[in-house]
Amino acid sequence: MVRLQLDPFLSELTTMFEQTTEKGSVWVTLKHSCDKSAVQINKMKSAGKVPEYKCLVRATDGKKNISTLVGTKDHQRFQASYATILKARMTSLKKREKKDKRKATDTDKKQGVSKKRAATSKP
What we know:
Blueprint: E1 2-3, H1 6-19, E2 27-33, H2 38-46, E3 54-60, E4 65-70, H3 75-89, H4 101-121
Parallel strand pairs: 1-4
Antiparallel strand pairs: 2-3, 3-4
Helix pairs in contact: 1-3
């Protein structure tokens, strides 16, 4: 797995989504992580220091794996960029136009009445 900085990660993620538009999937996972070993965390806690936790973001398309660590300072910027990428690439999830139920039932009733008239008027 390749660990990238924030901006290269977002550009690679965009590339993954582009490559899988016709066929395939992209899996993105987010995980709470410290990026230090358990021994280092225990030493920091015993010394009175609080370890800095970050968000580990992993993405894969089945062939290529990438990851990045997002700190608290970069969280807002990453979240905005990630949301923009998802909105641009998730075209199949766009809302479709819904027909008004009352209008649909009224037109169905009118069509049913006209069909009955046509059936009874035939010799």
